[in-house]
Specification:
This protein has helices spanning about 5-30, 35-50, 50-75, 85-110, 115-140, 150-165, 170-195, 200-215. It is an all-alpha fold. Helix 1 packs antiparallel against helix 8.
Length: about 220
Amino acid sequence: MDDARRRDLLLVALTFAAGAVDAVVFLRLDVFTAVMTGNIVLLGLAIGQGAFRNALRSLIALLAYSVGVVAGARIVDTIAIESHWSPKVTRALVTEWVLQVGFFVGWLLSGANPDGVGAATLIAVSGVSMGIQAAAVRALAPGMSTTYVTGTLTGLLSELSALGTVSGDRRRRASIVVALAFGAILSAFALSTIPVVAPAIPLVVIGGVLAVARSGFD
């Protein structure tokens, strides 16, 4: 498998993980920590309805994501050539994985039902980790995203309507959109059956991405 193909598969896996993360934090913590467009809307709704507890959670998620993006950009340092997976990208994702471990530990300690300060802490940890992922992926492939796919979906549908064909780039975009949905589906199912293990899904997926990256790129 060539490097570009391997990179694309890892981007799809990271998108799956982001969908899994957002399902957990939305269904249990009432925010998004990967999709900031949705989170900003939730923040506005909470303020408009006077739900200041939810507004505070959304604000924490937004600030944490911003911190994560800045931290991730510093780790990666520069925008890499598209398709080139550098050790700095791997280093950023290792940091994300460590934060996901922290989230999982906090989740277990809360009995899969965090509230109050514990919930705010988990939101912050998740937000920073997703911001780091977003920054790392932007450095790796500036035209792609694994944490928000509105632009990806719009581009895909626009190109399909204009040309009616499916190229390699369009397949990659379609895979990104589908992966986000399936990540959310699997996490939602886990929450309804064995909620204590739900945050382990993105943890395992990101760990798998790191294993492949270390053997295939670094």
